[in-house]
């Protein structure tokens, strides 16, 4: 959050584990089986050489330098790092009550968020697309090596209409436009409440100015917001089009939160490139998405948890009911699909980030799932174009690709369950050519 920025950027280096320097360094994975995420097969035993932050060579008899660190694969699986394209780095680390507590300490909250970021990386998620919230200071701290965490594609503050899904005002807080005072959520960098073309343009450009790699708008009702029913369509075509134009001028794209066909069709016509959620879509709308090349970034939601308040549990019911049908229809229609968790305000749930991948087995084979959470998710990240914060290819183990790698005990194609227990089965985790976990 903006008021946390100085605290976060000055976090002691002790928060990060020691990392192998990437510049000029070499790692050799000897006798590993490389997961081909495109074909869904494990290759024969081979060697993989990492130089700096890139995969330099793959093949038998690769010769490293005398100073290279050698990791014995012993026939284990080497695969790309996992990617979560709907992650909320701040909101997943903290209960809502802690964020709103009058005695909340920036130092305490910052330390919690930083620690959760480290745990995310140690679960094997080497990249995330942050789908909205205060994020820029955390990303800067990670990139500077002050905090350990995944690569972050930041969206910045949610952009929402008044009474939209991102209108996080408390009951006593009144409209900034009429009464002149920003809400607490706006001051914290969590959201922009923007109405009309001009305000939407300003909100988008503010996020781009801060370093957003893509823009997140709320185009329909949500389950974690108090004011808007699920069926509500949010933002006019002109407002959505304004956001798309501003993003396209910067070479990037808009993603929207939406469940219903009406909201999604309006967003598609406005030029939106990615739909988040979409569990209430019909066949016609999914066919339109496939035709236009619009992504569906879906989640595998469980019916409920004890942490959800009664209002949120009730609002989620139709979304849960529509989930199985919509994902099956989207796959049949040929919609490009990505996956993320979308955990909010339930920190205890974060330990199940990997396990939620397994819920995709209702619709996809293990090979399809592994491709989705690596290669396909990386393709979605690449939509940011020149606004992407990191140069290089992800989601593959290929020469020239970025060295985000997992050495896995077991064959996830035959037993997908191995990725659900990273503490036991991820022997080595490498991000950007640096070893961040070595339990070998």
Automatic annotation (TrEMBL):
<dbReference type="InterPro" id="IPR057744">
    <property type="entry name" value="OTAase-like"/>
</dbReference>
<feature type="signal peptide">
    <location>
        <begin position="1"/>
        <end position="18"/>
    </location>
</feature>
<dbReference type="InterPro" id="IPR032466">
    <property type="entry name" value="Metal_Hydrolase"/>
</dbReference>
<dbReference type="InterPro" id="IPR051781">
    <property type="entry name" value="Metallo-dep_Hydrolase"/>
</dbReference>
<keyword id="KW-0378">Hydrolase</keyword>
<feature type="domain" description="Amidohydrolase-related">
    <location>
        <begin position="77"/>
        <end position="436"/>
    </location>
</feature>
<dbReference type="GO" id="GO:0016810">
    <property type="term" value="F:hydrolase activity, acting on carbon-nitrogen (but not peptide) bonds"/>
</dbReference>
<keyword id="KW-0732">Signal</keyword>
<protein>
    <submittedName>
        <fullName>Amidohydrolase family protein</fullName>
    </submittedName>
</protein>
<dbReference type="Pfam" id="PF01979">
    <property type="entry name" value="Amidohydro_1"/>
</dbReference>
<dbReference type="InterPro" id="IPR006680">
    <property type="entry name" value="Amidohydro-rel"/>
</dbReference>
<dbReference type="InterPro" id="IPR011059">
    <property type="entry name" value="Metal-dep_hydrolase_composite"/>
</dbReference>
